[in-house]
Amino acid sequence: SVYGFSGLRGSEDVFGIIGSPIGHSKSPEYHNRQFREHGIPGVYLPFLVNDLEDFFILAETLTIRGLSVTVPHKQTIFPYLDSMDESVQAIGACNTILREPRGWRGTNTDAPGFLAPIASRLDRNVGSALVVGAGGAARACVYALVTRGISVHIVNRTRRRAEELVKTLKAYVPRGTELAITDEPEGLEAQLVVQTTSLGMSPRINEDPLPGYAFRKGQVVYDIIYSPAKTRFLQRAEKAGCEVINGWPMFIGQAAIQSRLFMNQLSGNR
Ligand code: ATR
C-alpha cells in the first residue's frame, strides 16, 4: 500500500493535504489509518499544489470533503474561504478546510493541538506563561493560552515583532487576562514556559533561544520542536528540575483533532 491505503472503489469520500513540497508528509499515512481503524470509507491523498486557483477547480470535480493545508498555502488560502473560525482570523493562518454546503470553512487545529498535552495542568495551576518567540507558531500558542484565560508574557529577539503579535491578539484576550511583552523574563512568575522559535531544531541542535534564562524547579517547560526529541532548551530545563514536554504530542494532537473534523464531515452534512 502507498500512503497507507490500497485500491479505490470509487465510492470513497476524498480528503487530502495540499502543499508544496508534499512528498515527505506523514499526514496521508496517519489519516488513512484513522479512517481504516474507524471503518470510515474515506481516502486521504497528497496533492502537490502550487496554484490554488487551479486546484480549487479540481476540488469541485472530485467533491473533496476536507483538506489539510500546509506550506506555502496557510496564509494565501484566505481568498478561497467562504467562512472561517475565530482562530483562523486571530492566528492569521489556516491549516484545515472543510467543505460545507455553502462553501469552504477554514479552521486551525494548531491551537487546540497545542493545548492537548497541557490541558490537565491548565485546569490545575497555571496562572501565567512565558512564551519565547513571536512568529507564526507563537501566534497559535499565544491565542490558545489567552483564550483559556492564561496570562502571557512574550520574549522575542525583535521587540517590534512581539509588539505586532500583541496588537493582533489583543482583541481576543478576555478581561482579567494579561498579554504583554517582557525584556526581563527572569523576574517573572511563570508556571509554564513555551518555546516556539525554530532554534534548536535539527540540524541546528546546539542553539538555544534564551541561553541566559534560569529555569525554576517545578516549572512546566514546553518546546514545540519534536526533532530532536529534546532540544538544548529542554535539556537545560530538565536538569533544573522542570517537567518537560516536546512538540510530538502537539503534532499528534492537532492531527487527531483534524481527523475527528474529517470524520464528522461524513456523519453530518452530505
Ligand atoms: P514560525 O512560523 O515557525 O514561527 P517565523 O514566523 O519566522 O517562523 O518566526 C520565527 C521565530 O523564531 C521568531 O520569533 C524569530 O525571532 P525574530 O522575530 O527576532 O526574528 C525567532 N528566531 C529565529 N531565528 C532566531 C535567532 N537566531 N535568534 C533568536 N530568535 C530567532
SSE arrangement:
Blueprint: E1 13-19, H1 27-37, E2 42-48, H2 52-62, E3 64-69, E4 83-84, H3 86-91, E5 96-100, E6 103-107, H4 110-115, H5 119-125, E7 128-132, H6 136-147, E8 151-155, H7 159-169, E9 179-181, E10 192-195, E11 220-223, H8 232-239, E12 243-245, H9 248-267
Parallel strand pairs: 1-2, 1-3, 4-6, 7-8, 7-10, 8-9, 10-11, 11-12
Antiparallel strand pairs: 3-5, 5-6
The protein binds 2'-monophosphoadenosine-5'-diphosphate.
Residues 133-138, 156-158, 161, 196-199, 209 line the site of 2'-monophosphoadenosine-5'-diphosphate (ATR).
Walk me through this protein's architecture:
The chain has nine helices and twelve strands. It starts with 12 loop residues before the first strand and ends with a helix. By secondary structure, it is of the alpha/beta class. The longest helix has 20 residues, at 248-267. It is 34% helix and 21% strand. It has helices at 27-37, 52-62, 86-91, 110-115, 119-125, 136-147, 159-169, 232-239, 248-267; strands at 13-19, 42-48, 64-69, 83-84, 96-100, 103-107, 128-132, 151-155, 179-181, 192-195, 220-223, 243-245. Bound molecules: 2'-monophosphoadenosine-5'-diphosphate. Residues 133-138, 156-158, 161, 196-199, 209 line the site of 2'-monophosphoadenosine-5'-diphosphate.
How would you write the strand order of the largest sheet? 2-1-3-5-6-4
CATH domain class of the largest domain: Alpha Beta
* Major sheet summary line: 6 strands, mixed
CATH architecture of the largest domain: 3-Layer(aba) Sandwich
Low-confidence stretches: none
Q: Give the bound compounds.
A: 2'-monophosphoadenosine-5'-diphosphate
The helix tally amounts to 9
**C-alpha Rg, in Å?**
20 Å
Which fold name corresponds to the CATH topology of the largest domain? Rossmann fold
Given the C-alpha coordinates, what overall shape results? globular
The total beta strand count reads 12
Number of domains: 2
Class by SSE composition: alpha/beta
Give helix % range. Answer: 25-40%
Q: Can you tell me the CATH superfamily of the largest domain?
A: NAD(P)-binding Rossmann-like Domain
Strand content: 15-25%
Task: Give the averaged pLDDT, no decimals.
Answer: 94
Q: Separation of termini? A: 28 Å
